[in-house]
């Protein structure tokens, strides 16, 4: 079953086109992340799903129902904002109760003093109070209910914002960079909590972030958005291992993937950075091809040879279990980054010559227009392993 | 800066502030002082702030009994409260629309508000008077209230304050199911309390002290606000019996002074909000 269906959504502000015909199916109960650099339109798309912005064309369906002309209130979606957007003049419990009060009480019943005298109001209020208390307990904020947002820490505000979204049991949760205002340690903790919340509630989550770690760790599927279009939708593992095009490959992975221009030499050989790679000659490269090699796809080698790149070591970065070696290779302005085991540290000195063997089964080839070249079903291995 | 010059500059600063402050306060203090003196002492040649013979009770009793001063004050309260309430009811939604809702012509409409801010009330007096005549509301509370219901200053002040409230709050409120008007009353206005209080003070002080418009549209005592009441009091009752007159004036000003001191903190916060940051 489809949780949210986005069909051909376009949106422009003035002459600036933000979204160009976005189509996306989000399964019921799925955790889907919209990942992209700032300005790629991911937040705009989320706002359109919520009904806070009107699309220029295209339709949105939530749980199989077209919601294009429904007000945000009626769409059965809840949203957590980057700024949390808590009401500063209301207490935590009032903040969380407001969506329920607006839905279950009429305008008359919500009036101060007079409202309390109308029939049923008291029982509904008690019911709301119990539900708020239950939600607060589940999030571990039950001791904060009488406080104002200004008296809370960032993490607590975050939980209140999630609580306010959760309390009315929406079909879809929309989250707009909810963790970006937290410090690094809390972010890791809240990442786990949101993931756990998703598992427990089992409803659809659409999560917007520009942080690839968040996207990779939390999502069932990631939709990479670039320049107002969906570049690829796939599981985090696939996005990393088989990016659909060069921009996706560049976006995902830290340090960035190494991209080297290569020239086909015929007979299944590619000239690259002063050395040669062996490739399957089934593929039609045209005139030029770009080879993408992840830092961990480079191995330390004792000597030069086929499928081995040679360069001068610029510097080494230690990151604990591994080290990153930055190597200048001929024909590339950017240094090549290789992830090497830390045991090699004693053998590495600046300015020394370094040989790096490419693990061919993990290398990626991109055509001149940026598409990834692959055989058949899109699995990687255009490069031939070289048997010594 | 040495401690010595620091003290010196502080001293100079305070002397200047005290001088200008007392210049402003002198008429006020003189009014209170006169309201405590017997008629014989009013024009005595030796200057004293406090009377030789206290005459406060007599002056204040006369002020309260010779003219219907309590009635004037009640009129003032009714008129000012009605004006303020209606102004907020009109200005807050207008300001919300100008601050948070995108629609064609928004900037032009806001331009009109700014123009409204520039036009002095006296310029509009004649057309408004004729309008009141046509509506048949001359010499009623309505005549005192209706020209002030739409306040360009109120719209401007609230708009500036609402602009500083993040859009996400409005979006969250829409998702929580609040209608646009509920957003104004339940979210925007409570969050703008400093602006509301600052505007209330400006509005109440302005209309409590207004003499010009009441003088034009009201001639029966039962509708007269305090300032106009004091004027008629001075003409008809006292002649040159200034003691009771000053007592009356003191009584009229007192509520404002008390209210201002009570709300001083918010007042300043409200007027400077948005100017920093």
Automatic annotation (TrEMBL), chain A:
SMART domains hit by this protein: AAA
Coiled-coil annotated residue ranges, if any: none
Topology of this chain in the membrane: Peripheral membrane protein
Residues in ABC transporter domain copies: 4-252
Matching InterPro entries: AAA+_ATPase, ABC_transporter-like_ATP-bd, ABC_transporter-like_CS, ABC_transpr_MalK-like, ABC_transpr_MalK/UgpC-like, Mo/tungstate-bd_C_term_dom, NA-bd_OB-fold, P-loop_NTPase
Subcellular location: Cell inner membrane
GO molecular function, one term: ABC-type transporter activity
Ranges that cross the membrane: none
Cross-referenced Pfam families: ABC_tran (PF00005), TOBE_2 (PF08402)
Keyword line: ATP-binding, Cell membrane, Membrane, Nucleotide-binding, Translocase, Transport
GO cellular component, as recorded: ATP-binding cassette (ABC) transporter complex, substrate-binding subunit-containing
Gene Ontology terms describing biological process: carbohydrate transport
Function: Involved in beta-(1-->2)glucan export. Transmembrane domains (TMD) form a pore in the inner membrane and the ATP-binding domain (NBD) is responsible for energy generation.
PANTHER family: MALTODEXTRIN IMPORT ATP-BINDING PROTEIN MSMX, TREHALOSE IMPORT ATP-BINDING PROTEIN SUGC
Family according to the record: Belongs to the ABC transporter superfamily.
Protein name: ABC transporter ATP-binding protein
Organism taxonomic ancestry: Bacteria, Pseudomonadati, Pseudomonadota, Alphaproteobacteria, Hyphomicrobiales
Automatic annotation (TrEMBL), chain B:
Pfam families according to UniProt: BPD_transp_1
GO biological process, one term: transmembrane transport
Membrane topology: Multi-pass membrane protein
Keyword annotations from UniProtKB, A to Z: Cell membrane, Membrane, Transmembrane, Transmembrane helix, Transport
Keyword check for Transmembrane helix: yes
Full protein name: Carbohydrate ABC transporter permease
Cell compartment(s), UniProt: Cell membrane
Entry superkingdom: Bacteria
Ranges that cross the membrane: 12-32, 72-96, 108-136, 142-162, 183-208, 242-263
Alphabetical list of PROSITE patterns matching this protein: ABC_TM1
Gene3D superfamilies in alphabetical order: MetI-like
Family from the record: Belongs to the binding-protein-dependent transport system permease family.
Taxonomic lineage: Bacteria, Pseudomonadati, Pseudomonadota, Alphaproteobacteria, Hyphomicrobiales
Primary site of residence: membrane
GO cellular component, one term: plasma membrane
Residue ranges constituting the ABC transmembrane type-1 domain according to the UniProt record: 73-263
Coiled coil: none
């Amino acid at each position: 079953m489809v949780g949210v269906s986005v069909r051909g959504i376009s949106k422009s502000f003035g002459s600036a086109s933000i979204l160009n015909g976005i189509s996306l199916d989000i399964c019921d109960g799925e955790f889907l992340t919209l990942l992209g650099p700032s300005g790629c339109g991911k937040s705009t798309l989320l706002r359109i799903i919520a009904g806070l912005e009107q699309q220029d064309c295209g339709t949105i369906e939530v749980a199989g129902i077209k919601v294009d002309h429904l007000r945000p209130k009626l769409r059965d979606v809840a949203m957590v904002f980057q700024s949390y957007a808590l009401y500063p003049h209301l207490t935590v419990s009032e903040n969380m109760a407001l969506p329920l009060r607006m839905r279950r009480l009429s305008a008359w019943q919500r009036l101060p003093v007079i409202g309390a005298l109308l029939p049923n109001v008291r029982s509904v209020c008690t019911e709301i109070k119990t539900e708020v208390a239950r939600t607060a307990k589940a999030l571990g904020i039950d001791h904060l209910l009488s406080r104002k947002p200004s008296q809370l820490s960032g993490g607590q505000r975050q939980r209140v914002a999630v609580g306010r979204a959760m309390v009315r049991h929406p079909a879809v949760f929309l989250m707009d960079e909810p963790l970006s205002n937290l410090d690094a340690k809390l972010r890791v903790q809240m990442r786990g909590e949101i993931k756990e919340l998703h598992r427990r509630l089992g409803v659809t989550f659409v999560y917007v972030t520009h942080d690839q770690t968040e996207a990779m760790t939390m999502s069932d599927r990631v939709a990479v958005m670039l320049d107002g279009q969906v570049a690829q939708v796939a599981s985090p593992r696939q996005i990393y291992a088989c990016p659909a095009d060069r921009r996706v490959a560049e976006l995902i992975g830290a340090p960035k993937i190494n991209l080297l221009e290569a020239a086909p030499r015929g007979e299944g050989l590619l000239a690259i950075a002063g050395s040669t790679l062996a490739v399957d000659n089934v593929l039609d490269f045209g005139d030029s091809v770009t080879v993408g090699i992840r830092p961990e796809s480079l191995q330390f080698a004792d000597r030069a040879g086929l499928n081995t790149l040679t360069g001068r070591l610029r510097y080494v970065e230690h990151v604990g279990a591994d080290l990153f070696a930055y190597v200048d290779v001929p024909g590339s302005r950017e240094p090549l980054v290789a992830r090497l085991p830390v045991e090699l540290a004693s053998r590495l000195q600046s300015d020394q010559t370094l040989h790096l063997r490419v693990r061919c089964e993990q290398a990626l080839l991109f055509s001149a227009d940026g598409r990834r070249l692959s055989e058949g079903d899109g699995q990687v291995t255009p490069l031939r392993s070289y048997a010594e | 800066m040495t401690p010595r010059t620091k003290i010196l500059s502080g001293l100079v600063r305070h002397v200047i502030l005290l001088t200008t402050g007392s210049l402003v306060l002198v008429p006020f203090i003189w009014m209170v002082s006169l309201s405590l003196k017997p008629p014989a002492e009013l024009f005595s040649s030796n200057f004293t702030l406090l009377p030789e013979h206290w005459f406060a009770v007599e002056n204040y009793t006369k002020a309260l009994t010779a003219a219907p001063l309590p009635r004037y004050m009640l009129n003032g309260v009714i008129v000012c409260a009605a004006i303020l309430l209606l102004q907020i009811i009109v200005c807050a939604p207008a300001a919300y629309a100008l601050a948070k809702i995108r629609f064609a012509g928004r900037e032009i409409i806001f331009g009109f508000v700014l123009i409204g801010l520039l036009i002095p009330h006296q310029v509009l007096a004649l057309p408004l008077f004729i309008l009141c005549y046509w509506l048949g509301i001359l010499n009623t509370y309505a005549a005192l209230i209706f020209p002030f219901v739409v306040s360009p200053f109120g719209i401007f002040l609230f708009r500036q304050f609402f602009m500083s409230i993040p859009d996400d709050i409005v979006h969250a409120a829409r998702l929580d199911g609040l209608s646009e008007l509920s957003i104004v009353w339940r979210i925007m206005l409570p969050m703008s309390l400093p602006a509301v209080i600052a505007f209330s003070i400006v509005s109440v002080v302005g209309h409590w002290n207004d003499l010009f418009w009441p003088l034009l549209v009201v001639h029966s005592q039962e509708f007269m606000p305090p300032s106009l009441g004091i004027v008629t009091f001075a003409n008809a009752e006292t002649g040159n019996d200034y003691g009771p007159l000053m007592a009356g004036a003191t009584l009229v000003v007192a509520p404002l002074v008390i209210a201002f001191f009570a709300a001083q903190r918010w007042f300043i916060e409200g007027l400077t909000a948005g100017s920093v940051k």
